Every structure is written in C-alpha cells, then in structure tokens.
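Hi R.,

Here's the chain you asked about this morning:
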Amino acid sequence: MESSIWTGTLTGFREKAGGTVPVPAGVTISVITASLALALLAKVLDITGKRKGFSGNPERLGALLDAARSESTRLTYLADEDIRAFNQYLECMRRGQDEAGW
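And here is the predicted structure, written out as tokens:
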C-alpha cells in the first residue's frame, strides 16, 4: 500500500479492502471514518458559530471546533500508523519471525 492512506483514492482503498490480498482494513477503515466524521462535525460547528442567530457560548463552540479539528488530524496519523504496523507484521511473517509478539 501507499506510504500514506491519504495520498491514494477512496476507490483504490475500497478495492484493496474488499480484495483477497491481505491489507489493513478494520482499524484503518474505522479510523478513516472517524476522521471524516470529525471533519464534518468541525464544518457544522464552524457554520453554526457564524450564523446571525447563534446564541450559544462562542468560547465553548470554539473549544469544540478546535478539538474536532485536532482529533480529526490526529486520526489521520493513526490510520497511517496502523498501516505501517500491519505491513511490519506481514514482513515479520514473511521472514518466519514473530518479532511483534503476535
């Protein structure tokens, strides 16, 4: 797989995830989904805070917006980390070693 899941296409990843060749799937798909959901949440919070009739707490909204953006970004790194760990595991298995303790 690519060095980063974020440089490929969703179509390519979906095809690999649904194929018969071993690829990281469950954790990576979950992390990607969560990252995208948090990005969407950040968008909604940003739009909400800019509405004329917004009567909520702007500081609280800002904190939630920052947290959603931060966690979405953090999850992008975790998806790539899961892929690296999976590839390392496969390499260990190919060499007949179980260095990861699995």
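One quick note: The longest helix spans residues 58-94.

Cheers,
M.
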